[in-house]
Amino acid sequence: MQDVFNFSAGPATMPKAVLEKAQQELLNWQNLHTSVMEVSHRGEAFMKMVAEAEQNLRKLYHVPDNYKILFLQGGARGQFAAIPMNLLGKNQKALYLTSGHWSKLAAQEARLFANLDEIDLLEQGKDTLQVGQLDFSDIASKYDYVHYCPNETISGVEIFDVPNVGNTVLVADMSSCILSRQIDISKFGMIYAGAQKNLGPSGITLVIIREDLLTQTEQSKIPSIWNYTVQANRDSMINTPPTFAWYLCGLVFEHWLAQGGLPAIEVQNKEKALLLYTYLDESDFYHNNVAVENRSEMNVTFTTGDSELDKCFVAEAQEHGLLALKGHKVQGGMRASIYNAMPLSGVVALVTFMEYFANTHKK
């Protein structure tokens, strides 16, 4: 049977070992002769599981003790609204640094709840997408928080340096780069990410927030489902959580710890990205329009320059077991999402097909 590699931007491919373990435990979890989906989320077995998941994530990501970890619902989009509700303070104003589709949507949603300024990080007048300067220490004190997106899934732009915002709270939407490499979490007031790319399945959202930012009370006007203080005080369980998704995230954390943690993950991710970008740079058939220093290691975008040929590429790739390579409708072209669970062999198979397709369709 032909190997199949899923390059979807999310829901994305998951570690095969994790899926196999979930399959084995599906009907008899923890020797309870029932599925994890059927037990009480407040029962002893489930509570022990979520405690272990949190501890494994803390160990894997080196989360400091003064940060709370929340497992919420509503996706990253839900946090677009929750962030201004929770983090606006004495200034009653926020700064949004935009670098693509998702950071702009975050700003658009936040405007429903907050007064904000927006700065486009992408330098204008160039053939390639490139991020400009990241030092905002001279203006950041005017704002309660500064928000940005380190990895834009659609365009394949990644920001590797952390913006300098002085002592102002820095918030990052890390949905597409969470756990892909080690970061200094102490530089952030809050990190959030939808699970469906590097953490687990869709339906659950990770929030890592510094404890001193949990200043709202349960009597505030923030709806309880979006209130970080309420959620933290109730272990992310003010309502029934997505139990199966939480369980799978726990298996993912356990799996990556066993594989060597983030140092090993980072090496593998760099190797995969280097292989694909090297081929693109050497090709006169495909094109990538992101500056080298801002090329995403998670989402590699490319095109032939011909929209009809791009459609042909996607269709033929699928016939060869290379799935979900169609670019986002906003961007067009192709996109290969090579998250943690994508093996190197998948990228090798993609490059091999790309060479075959180019040789077959060159004029």
Number of domains: 2
Structural class: alpha/beta
Helix-residue proportion: 25-40%
Give the low-confidence spans: none
Strand order of the largest sheet: 2-10-9-8-5-3-4
> How many helices?
9
The total beta strand count reads: 13
| CATH homologous group name of the largest domain | Type I PLP-dependent aspartate aminotransferase-like (Major domain)
Specify the oligomeric state: single chain
| SSE arrangement, N to C | EHHEHEHEEEEEEEHHHEHEEH
CATH class of the largest domain: Alpha Beta
Task: Report the principal-axis shape.
Answer: globular
Give a verbal description of the structure.
This protein is an alpha/beta fold and 363 residues long. It has 9 helices and 13 strands. It folds into 2 domains: 5-15 and 260-361, Aspartate Aminotransferase, domain 1; 18-259, Aspartate Aminotransferase, domain 2, CATH 3.40.640. Helices cover 35% and strands 15% of the residues. The strands form 4 sheets. The chain has a 7-stranded mixed sheet with strand order 2-10-9-8-5-3-4. A hairpin with a 4-residue loop joins strand 6 and strand 7 (157-158). Helix 2 packs across helix 6, helix 3 (75-87) crosses helix 4 and helix 7 (261-282) packs parallel to helix 9 (344-361). It is an enzyme of class 2 (transferase).
